[in-house]
């Protein structure tokens, strides 16, 4: 009886540690992964996979590489903040941060600035192992941002930042709502999610108290009709529940439930100031919550003192991780977010069982894929799924010695050890460098553009110590 001939493949990575994140959470000490076009075609022990494929290219992973799925960043500001990174003073509370610093710099940008900012954000994510992201919302020019991102090779779900609530007496509420809905309809038509393209449009609501009930209903209906998701900020501060209680007599999540806006399509970012009923509604509806631990710590949001994240985990809420915005001092490095998430509630509750490394790695991979509506094609390494994966370089001190690979990923390593990255089967980072972005040119452009944005916004960056 003749043996089955080997299958031709484009790439074979062999003799590497492989953390699959599949349903059994299998880890191979001497594993191999084979890629053809944009898909994983074989994965398992090196001996088994090598016999089944005929590769065009081979990467030897022995004593060198750990392979993981690409990380999924559930909430990141790719415009507005990367271009003015770190300019907000360290001791800035939430309201001052948003209204006195972020909004003025957002509005001082040009479409060219947004394109540069998006490119920088994509580069940082790719270089630190993130292969897919959900955007918080482009401020001004979504087409410019889409074109810039398309040139980087990253996977993402993006949208214009939309709000419609009339706060000023002379605002035309009906016109504002009609305009917001039209924006959503246009971007979902121009960049549909059907067919799992690298980039697709999403309803990106500002959230908080900025969306009317009509906008929430329309965004929800569009998401359900088109198979995309909805993302919005909610309850990062007590101001959100205070507003909803005053205006509707209900807390925010209760009110969204009454609108039929909750569900697996929805990702709510921050979700710190919730009560027990709201947690139960999130769990029952399948709504995702995006935890941004680095922002919470930098901005003193109160996640560790007021946040019900342990309760959410206990009740089965899908919690994913986000890095939020760079003006909170954040890197878009999901590995740093994993470390922060693993430690935050251990210390706050003096309970070492809180958020083990295994759970946190799930938040950055399979949970993120679920929140992005992409569980069927990313988030784990399995035959038939998209070839979105990362090689972590073990020839670094933080990776030696290696005994527990998941602990090492969460507690020891960070994104600086990412050697190579594939998205949709394309190698977009090779030996610590982007294969598609002229990094030196981008850095020079960003330095000039960031200074110009701050100048147009009338901002002077303070320093506690003298800068000579």
Write the layout of secondary structure elements.
Elements: E1 7-19, E2 27-36, E3 39-45, H1 46-52, E4 53-60, E5 65-69, E6 71-76, H2 94-107, H3 111-127, E7 130-135, H4 142-150, E8 155-158, E9 161-162, H5 173-190, E10 199-201, E11 204-207, H6 213-226, E12 230-234, H7 239-248, H8 252-258, E13 266-270, H9 276-285, E14 288-291, H10 293-299, H11 303-306, H12 309-315, E15 318-321, H13 334-349, H14 357-364, H15 366-371, E16 389-393, H16 405-412, E17 418-423, E18 426-430, E19 433-434, H17 439-456
Parallel strand pairs: 1-4, 1-5, 6-7, 7-8, 8-10, 9-11, 11-12, 12-13, 13-14, 14-15
Antiparallel strand pairs: 1-2, 2-3, 5-16, 16-17, 17-18, 18-19
Secondary-structure arrangement, i.e. CATH architecture of the largest domain: Alpha-Beta Barrel
Low-confidence stretches are: none
Summarize model confidence as the mean pLDDT: 96
Question: How would you classify the helix and strand content by structural class?
Answer: alpha/beta
What is the fold named in CATH at topology level of the largest domain?
TIM Barrel
- Helix proportion: 25-40%
| Largest sheet entry | 9 strands, mixed
Radius of gyration based on Cα positions: 22 Å
Strand content: 15-25%
User: Would you state the CATH class of the largest domain?
Assistant: Alpha Beta
- Would you identify the CATH H-level superfamily of the largest domain? Metal-dependent hydrolases
Quote the distance from N terminus to C terminus: 79 Å
Tell me the number of structural domains: 2
- Count of DSSP-assigned helices: 17
Number of E strands: 19
